[in-house]
Amino acid sequence: MLDFLFEEDSVRMFILIIFAVLIIAIRTLRKSCRLLENENEAYKRNVQKVEFEKSQNEKEKEDLKKVEDALQKRYDKLLEEEKIYRSKIDEQVLENERTYKNNINEQLKKLLQDKSVSMPWLATMMTDFYEIFINESRCTVTNVKDLKHEISQLKKENRLLTYNLDYVKSLFPEIEDEIETEIDEVPATEYLSKEEYDKLSDTEKNKLALERYKKSKNRGKHNIGRDFEMFVGYQYEKQGFKVTYFGIEQKIHDLGIDIIAEDKNRVFIIQCKYWNKHKTIYEKYICQLYGTTMKYRFDTKTRKIVKPLFICHNELSETAKEFAKTLGILVSENVELGEYPIIKCNIAEKIYHLPFDQQYDNLKREHCALVNTIEEAENLGCRRAYKWYGKK
């Protein structure tokens, strides 16, 4: 009876254990299922998020494509407008160039006609220039070989002239400020038209030529510098100074001395510069004037007071002013060229020289009288100097 009860309890216990294990297994399985369901939900949410972002990216991509297309269309339109604008500009430039060339041609032809009688050398030079550089028909020349040979020869001549000029500059450094193309004599017709020249008497021709010379703003570097020196020197002559026009007489060998003005007690060593207003005078000219003044003192051994004086049409640099102050050089800036008796009369030979005549510079001041007008010169019994009559 007891064994049976014992066996029944064992079976019951076993069944309870199995049942407990099943309950635990079911709970674990449910828990695992819930975890899987949660992970699945999270995965679905991530997938939805990715799909949403993808759709957003696609939309942004489409928007960017639209913007890119719009920009491309705008760029193409601007490019086309630029091409049209450039085309119009090119056409305008070509038209202006043609108009400019035509005007130049007309002006040159007119100038050649005016100067062909009075200045044949200039007419020849301008004709060559017109034919070589301006006339478009020259560009269609068939004999290209001759033209190349001509250009080659001109290049050789230009090199030789350059070498010679450099050599002269090395010998005379001071010539650098004086170099220009000069003509020894300018006839009265230079300042008159042919019609005016033919109608006037000799006196009227020379008078009008002189008047136009005085009014001219393009006398040339040499002439304007020479006239300025004579103007300055004449101011000292009026004050009773004995004036030597050293620069005019010695030319490039003047050592920086243009005028020597001397009275009983003083000697002024004067350098004159009539440069354009936009140019500046630097200290090297001040130093040169100081050196030549010292040399004059040593050479002459004069007991008079010797003072250097720098007179100019423009202004000195600040450094040049400091040099002048330190070296005791008097400076007069912004001096304008005024009126003075510009005609030289050689009383001994009864000849007068205008400032554009060949022998004007060669006639020394002590050998001539200065007058203002052609009438005054003729009243002294003088006639106009011509090239073949000129004497030193």
Sequence-ordered SSE layout with sheet pairings:
Layout: H1 2-118, H2 120-134, H3 144-171, H4 194-199, H5 202-215, H6 221-238, E1 242-244, H7 246-250, E2 259-262, E3 266-273, E4 280-281, H8 283-300, E5 305-312, E6 315-316, H9 318-327, E7 330-332, E8 343-346, E9 351-353, E10 369-371, H10 374-379, E11 383-384
Parallel strand pairs: 3-5, 4-6, 5-7, 9-11
Antiparallel strand pairs: 1-2, 2-3, 8-9, 8-10
Write up this protein.
This protein has 392 residues and is α/β, with parallel strands linked by helices. The chain folds into three domains: 34-140; 141-171; 189-384, Trna Endonuclease, Chain: A, domain 1 (3-Layer(aba) Sandwich). It is 60% helix and 11% strand. It has ten helices and eleven strands. The strands form three sheets. Strands 1-2-3-5-7 form a five-stranded mixed β-sheet, with helices on both faces. Strands 10-8-9-11 form a four-stranded mixed β-sheet. Strands 4-6 form a two-stranded parallel ribbon. Strand 2 and strand 3 form a beta hairpin. The longest helix is centred in the N-terminal third of the chain and has 117 residues, at 2-118. The N and C termini lie far apart (179 Å). 18% of the residues are buried. The model is unreliable at 136-142, 180-189 and 388-392 (pLDDT under 50).
Produce a short descriptive summary.
60% of the residues lie in helices and 11% in strands. The chain is of the alpha/beta class and 392 residues long. The protein has three domains: 34-140; 141-171; 189-384, 3-Layer(aba) Sandwich (Trna Endonuclease, Chain: A, domain 1), CATH 3.40.1350.
